Amino acid sequence: RHSVVTFHGVNAGISYLTSQTVIIRGIGSLGQKHELTSLTACNCPLVHDPSDDETIEKPSDKTAIHQDPDSKPAVKKKRKQPTECFLSQPEEKQESAVKPKKRKKKKISDVLEKSSPKPGVPEDLQNLLSQHFGARRSVIEIEELTLSDSCFLPANDLTHSFSSYLKEICPKWAKLRKNHKEKKSVVMLVICSSALRSLELIKSMTTFKGDCRVLKLFAKHIKIKEQINMLEKGVFHIGVGTPGRIKALVEQDGLCLNSTKYMILDWNWRDQKLRRMMDIPEIKKETIDLLETSIIKLCREGSVKLGLF
Predict the structure, then answer these.
(1) What Rg, from alpha-carbon coordinates, does the chain have?
(2) S-S: 160 plus which of 165, 182, 215, 247, CB 3.0-4.6 Å?
């Protein structure tokens, strides 16, 4: 980039102080003094602009009459021509601010693309409970909340349907179903991440359940008072629902767990975002709260068995 500076008038000139600094002085047509300092000097050509030249003074007629014939003609004084000087300006350096790169969080889908999903095992739930209670409980309390391997049923190896898995872990289901006659309780509890998933599992267990009664234990379109009334009036063998609603029913004495023998966690199923039930923070918290308040104690006593489907 260049800046063009033009000075008109007499005695316009450039005096070089240093190799980097130039002072331009000039006297305008009205006698004003112009001075521009601290400009970066450059080796630039001086361009003559004839249009801006001042008119050279001509002798008047009166002086020509009185002029001595032997005298020599007056020498015309040439005044310095205005010049144009192109001064280069230093380019501003654009400082590129280097921003630190943010690490991208790994998505579950990216992890699953690189490795095949592994079926859940009892050790996964044990580690989850120990991590959750590790910083909040004392050593004695953690021991009371620890589940041994004897508390678990065989886990699903991802080759079973829901009906075939239930038949494997509960071969004497027909006998248990006939002997169960208590109200406000179920023989088997199935914990899911959502109401839609609960409906899917209820449909998929038709070959297993036979003529037993299944109760929907989730909050979608069903009030908790309606579920409490149904448990008080009738006998149900299987309850399928979300951990939050089941925990609320237990706390309000609408559901009793004394007759419960099996509790199945829908552990391996993934939703549209490829999340398991324990990958969803709300479901994880509600499930752990349900285990802590009621299920772990019954499992340690041996009355309830846990299964990971």
Answers:
(1) 48
(2) 165
